[in-house]
Design goal:
Radius of gyration: 20 Å
CATH class of one domain: Alpha Beta
Structural class: alpha/beta
Number of strands: 15
CATH topology of one domain: Rossmann fold
Number of helices: 19
Strand order of the largest sheet: 3-4-14-9-10-13
Largest sheet: 6 strands, mixed
CATH architecture of one domain: 3-Layer(aba) Sandwich
Strand content: 15-25%
Helix content: 40-55%
Oligomer: single chain
Length: 460
């Protein structure tokens, strides 16, 4: 399996090179040259345990890693999860909740980043050299990435977060990791600013190569690959439980990475009838799928901070497929977006962008009400991101097929929102242990050169 850039200006590379490259040298995102059709494998995969299924899916894409080595990487990555199913799907009222928060940092990012951290270490051990990871986070990616590589030899990690715009517990999970290879940067700006700094730094190819920069954000293909697995796993479990032959997924998303994984799983042959895309007030993605216009607005701080994003880094991968794999057309669209802050695609005969997607938004009041209702009616506490997905699903899903809602984080990570919704705190021992933890973090200006200078100074 070889990997190409969405912008078409690099030669195909292997899986290990794709992992270490992160963002393509031409500024594009990496994708496999073709997606395998796995529809004939689904019956054999349906009863597999999570790690076994992950191995079967990933081996189709990681063809330059010996099977025994890949199996060991997968097993080590999911041995850290607290639930025996890794990502269980549980019925809650009329929906099915896919719990993705049983990893070390209680967020769905663990499922990809535990694997990616082990993958980085494996490749470096065999190739030699070093890796300096530069990442941007709106909340959960940072702590999951840090916990994936903390203490690993030959790796440093530098994570930027928007100062004061993550939840206090999300920030504490990052800044309380004191391993000498971990650096937290509080950027005076928004997540989109952090993401712009990261992409601009990676676009300086000479700087990137000189300082061995790598990516853990969902621009890294291995992140998206690992996330496709739980779509298969949850669909199999839900179809077995309900007798259904197809399912639909509701996905709260800001950066489009999580729902992109479902889109790719569907293209590979998983029987997904519909993907329900849910945003908060920062609704660039839901506006696009309903209008065909992808236009930047100001970021609005909300109670679901991981979705407080206007420029979705994985949207380019979807757009590449939307234009039929035409890299020149993709480059033209992205250039226009860079200059004008807007791009447009035509609507289909049904008046929407894509029949596979339904899209909607949920504001703060509706999100809090959803948390309150599910607690009162089902004794189940949704975190504010998951609640956005659930309320949009309630408005758009219907009852024709089972609806699976992705639960992206444990509610205990969002204390104030939960108290505002149900009048009491939810606790988790992992988070309670952070209350008196020592922290380390450096404030930094919202400037590309400031971050570059910091990297040069602190790279070991």
């Amino acid at each position: 399996m070889k990997y190409i850039s969405t912008r078409g200006r690099m030669a195909p590379i292997g899986f290990q090179d794709a992992v270490m490259t992160g963002l393509a040298p031409d500024g594009g995102l990496l994708l496999p040259e073709s997606l395998p059709d796995v529809s004939g494998r689904l019956p054999a995969w349906a009863g597999l345990a999570y790690a076994d299924l992950a191995f079967e899916v990933m081996r189709l894409f990681a063809t330059d890693i010996p099977a025994d080595d890949l199996r060991s990487l997968v097993d080590a990555s999911y041995a850290t999860f607290a639930h025996p199913e890794v990502a269980p799907t549980v019925p809650v009222g009329d929906i099915h909740v896919l719990e993705l928060f049983h990893g070390p940092t209680l967020a769905f990012k663990d499922i990809a980043l535990q694997f990616l951290g082990n993958l980085f270490a494996y490749i470096l051990e065999r190739r030699g050299g070093r890796l300096n990871i530069l990442g941007a986070t709106s909340g959960d990616t940072g702590s999951a990435a840090i916990h994936g590589v903390r203490g690993k030899p030959n790796i440093n990690i530098f994570i930027m977060h928007p100062a004061g715009r993550t939840s206090p517990l999300q920030e504490k999970q990052m800044t309380s990791v004191l391993d000498p290879n971990v650096f937290n940067l509080a950027v005076d700006g928004t997540f989109d600013d952090c993401q712009h700094i990261m992409k601009t730094t990676f676009a300086d190819v000479a700087f990137k190569e000189r300082h061995a920069l790598g990516a853990v954000n969902s621009v890294n293909w291995a992140r998206v690959l690992a996330q496709t697995v739980y779509y298969f796993h949850s669909a199999f479990r839900t179809m077995e439980r309900t007798g259904a032959r197809t399912v639909q997924f509701a996905v709260p998303t800001g950066n489009f990475g999580d729902i992109l994984a479902g889109y790719l799983a569907q293209r590979m042959g998983l029987p997904i009838r519909r993907l329900i895309l849910a945003t908060n007030e920062n609704d660039i993605l839901s506006r696009f799928f309903n209008s065909g216009v992808y236009g930047v607005a100001s970021v609005v701080p909300t109670i679901s901070p991981s979705m407080d994003i206007q420029v979705a880094s994985n949207f380019e991968r979807y757009l590449y497929y939307k234009v039929g794999g035409n890299a020149d057309a993709l480059v033209s669209l992205m250039a226009g977006f860079s200059q004008e802050g807007e791009l447009c695609v035509p609507l289909n005969a049904n008046g929407i962008v894509d029949d596979l997607f339904a899209a909607g938004r949920g504001d703060t009041a509706a999100t809090l009400d959803t948390i309150r209702r599910y607690h009162a009616e089902h004794g189940y506490v949704l975190d504010p991101h998951t609640a956005v997905g659930v309320l949009v699903a309630e408005r758009t899903a219907g009852t024709a097929v089972p609806t699976i809602c992705l639960a992206t984080a444990h509610p205990a990570k969002f204390t104030q929102a939960i108290v505002d919704a149900i009048g009491e705190e939810v606790h988790h021992p992992v988070l309670d242990a952070l209350s008196d933890a020592e922290t380390r973090c450096d404030a930094i200006a919202n400037e590309v050169d400031a971050v570059k200078d910091y990297l040069v100074e602190h790279i070991r």
